[in-house]
Amino acid sequence: MTDNLLDVTETILDITLFISFIAISLSLILLLIRMLKGPTNPDRAVALDTIGINLMGVAALLAIYLITPNLNDVILLIAILAFLGTVAIAKYLEKGVIIDRDMD
Amino acid sequence: MYKPNDLILRTTTSLIAFILLGFAVYLLFAGHNSPGGGFIGGLVTAAAIVLMYMAYGIETVDKVLPINFETLISIGLITAIVTGLGSFLFDVPFLSHTFDYFEFPIFGEVELATAMLFDIGVYFTVVGVTVTIILNIANDQ
Amino acid sequence: MSNLVVLPIIIPLLAGVIVALFNKKVAVTRTLTKLFSILNLGVAAYLSWIVFTTDSIILETGEWVAPYGIILVADPLASLLVLTTNIVAVACAFYAPHSLSLRQETHYFYAFYFFLITGVSGAFLTGDLFNLFVFFEVLLMASYALIVLGGERIQLRESIKYVLINLFSSILFVTAVAFIYGAVGTVNMAQIAERVQIQGQDGVLTTVAILLFFVFATKAALFPLYYWMPKSYIVPNTVVSALFGALLTKVGIYSILRVFSLIFVHKLELTHETFIWIAGLSMLFGVIGALSTNNIKLIIAYNIIPAIGFILMGLGVFNQDGMSGSVYYLVHDMIIKTALFLIVGVIAYVAGTSDLRKMGGLIHYYPGLGWLLFVAAFVLAGIPPFSGFIGKLLLLQGTLSEYEVVITIIALISSLLILYSVMKIFIRGFWGEKDETGKYEKKSTKGLIGPIVYLLAFSIFLGVGAEWIVPSVESISTYLLDPEIYIESVLKE
């Protein structure tokens, strides 16, 4: 009985993973189109940030698929880089300068 | 001149920079046997410092962090090289490493390896190089 | 003590970092540079003495045994070249403070100078094809920084060309290493040689060999890949030109010498026969370039190309005399090219121009400098009893014993033309009426002449002391012609 339950869980997990991968891939493609098309630079910035979040999703799904905890650091790193990148782009769009000499 | 309101950025930076620095130290010390190491730890530290520069501007951060990053490159490189030279003292081939287990009050049993010292050198070098490059590019107006 | 091998790489690295730390205090950096370069010369001399009196030293870093870990091999050829590199480096260290502007010195000249020496020594000493690439990158990074030192407009233009061509050949280098790894499953040079011997040098391996030759020929500025070299080498400061001219191209030709005497020696009629023709064309085109210009620095820069041609010619005939000639000529050329670059640097400084048409009568003001140039020209062209003569004698014995008559004639003609191209500087620059208009008021050449005399002394010793040196060089060529010795000493079977 328990074996059977485990099998069912594994099948469900496989199917879920499969669907999630396809969904994330589709959303990545859509985001890529948004990034290329624009029409304005803030649109592109938002698309880039969302691509970062999607990449974290891909890494997490891969960690489930490969059954490894080693990708956790990678997910954190992608989050940090995406955050920094977004902050930098946002500041550039707003002020034209990323690191000011004197703020006050 | 238009003055943007970056209250949110400044507030989150003071929190996130500390998380980043903690993560960097974790990566530095995890690097011996699992993913991580001096290079990636240095990059994350540099990210934290750059974030502070973005939020507060060069003059403020220079006051808070009075570090000459070009000197930091030299210090890191010297650390790394001197670690290698340790092999001369013990008469083993260059870059040989060794490790042992130690008991610490809070952390319990910890593995300490000489490769760690080399990694710390790499860490300082990477922090120095990355921040120097980014600040130079940012200053180029 | 096998750790000795790593010292010629580690000392300059440490010195470079320490010097960078004291960057703003020029007096300190100058003293440290001189001390460290002399220390390094001492270590290199001790290393070569040990290698020549006993046997090659192999260092397996981190106690990883030969085919798996990173190894450094100090065999006679490598240690001899490291020694020569350091002889040249000491001269440049003493010349630099008098030739560079303060601004160039505080822009980390000394640090990058030491990193360049690190890369060159590493490239000579490594026993691993991938690490050869790594050390190439180390020396190229340092050279990128050195070539733009000063930041004049023409320097930036030439450095773009230099950086692009070197990046491109580096890409090809990694690709070739990857191909070799795919074909034989290792990057350790001794093991590659062993496996190529066993499975035979088939079409794939020969193609990779040609690719590697292309890469090294680009770095060594052989025909037809020399077009980027002369102008990029003359735009930086004299010391930098001297270092580049003496070391960078020589690392390229050393790699050819190593790879094609150790690994790819099973299709001689395909590879080495081609080398002879490439060598001949390099000599001819290099000399034509040197004759075609009136810029004294450019004349010397163009003279690098025929010298590389001579060294390749010895490898091409691939017999005892030819290889001895190549090794001898390699050492000779590293020293004399540095001396010549430094001499024309002084000439350009005292005359205020590097254009021959605007000079004349310098001998009335600087007789010593004139005679130094005269001697250097004789050494370069190979007038007996100077060192160029011994090298060329060995090389021509090599070619004649293989009945390669055409290349012998080309070599002789180009030697004569080399002499003419350098003598042109002497005749046009130093002869002539004493200039009374006061165009050249006496400038101080303090500190500039010493390093040149030191280098020429070494060069003359190479020629006059040939009786003691040639047996060692011949033992190196015997060693190079038998790859088994290298393979056994590294893999310890």
Q: How does the helix and strand content of chain C classify structurally?
A: mainly alpha
Q: Roughly what fraction of the amino acids of chain C lie in strands?
A: under 5%
Give the amount of beta strand of chain A, in percent: under 5%
Major beta sheet of chain C, specifics? Answer: 2 strands, antiparallel
Low-pLDDT runs of chain C: none
Total strands of chain C: 2
GO molecular function (chain C): antiporter activity; NADH dehydrogenase (ubiquinone) activity
Organism (chain C): Ornithinibacillus halophilus
InterPro entries (chain C): CPA3_Na-H_Antiporter_D, NADH_UbQ_OxRdtase, ND/Mrp_TM
Transmembrane segments (chain C): 6-23, 35-52, 64-96, 108-126, 132-151, 163-184, 204-227, 239-263, 275-292, 299-318, 330-351, 363-383, 403-427, 448-470
Secondary-structure topology with pairs:
The complex is a heterotrimer of chains A (104), B (141) and C (493).
Chain A: H1 2-37, H2 41-66, H3 72-95
Helix pairs in contact in A: 1-2, 2-3
Chain B: H1 7-30, H2 38-56, H3 58-64, H4 69-90, E1 99-104, E2 108-113, H5 114-139
Antiparallel strand pairs in B: 1-2
Chain C: H1 7-21, H2 26-53, E1 57-60, E2 71-74, H3 76-99, H4 102-125, H5 129-147, H6 153-184, H7 189-199, H8 203-220, H9 229-234, H10 238-262, H11 268-291, H12 296-317, H13 320-351, H14 367-381, H15 387-401, H16 405-430, H17 449-464, H18 466-481, H19 483-491
Antiparallel strand pairs in C: 1-2
Helix pairs in contact in C: 1-2, 1-4, 2-3, 2-4, 3-4, 3-10, 3-13, 3-17, 4-5, 4-10, 5-6, 5-10, 6-8, 7-19, 8-10, 10-12, 10-13, 11-12, 11-16, 12-13, 12-15, 12-16, 13-14, 13-15, 13-17, 13-18, 14-16, 14-17, 15-17
